Amino acid sequence: MPNEGHVGASVANGSAELRLVWREDRYALVFTHEGGELRSVPSDQFDTPVFTDAHQQGELLFASGAEGARQWSMSVEPYEGGFLLDTACRVTKPVDRAAASCFDGEGWGVGSVERDDQPPRISRDASASRLEAVPDEPSAQPYTVRYRVRVVAAAGER
Fold this sequence. Notes:
By secondary structure, this protein is mainly beta. Helix content is about 0%, strand content about 60%. It has one domain. Strands 1-2-3-4-9-12-11 form a seven-stranded antiparallel beta sheet, with no helix packed on it. Strands 5-6-7-8-13-10 form a six-stranded antiparallel beta sheet, with no helix packed on it.
């Protein structure tokens, strides 16, 4: 198991950078640029991705992991002022909570990707620092849910 703070992989896109940083028992996504920082965070409401393995091939980052009935995988690539996250979750047994990617921070925006058939619901809390991307999930198991989100430096802060 990596030490706390270990960087498993990182990629830059202009002044924006994404690092996969070991926190407690998994890799967290940490996005930075001169205007702010955004971090992936756990949630009391949703099952969030668990990434325990990370590797890099050039500008592409890959992460995977599992917890309970969920098996997670993600690829990340530079994308128009930020990054494109392509996340998949395989569910093998009934689960109590929906899957979601949750982020906390400022100076970044999270949005769905054009031309996706079923983009995730994107919401921001009242403090404007918490962002959630929630895909629709079928009810019968097993199934795989896949969702893509753009994470970009907020307008005027790139």
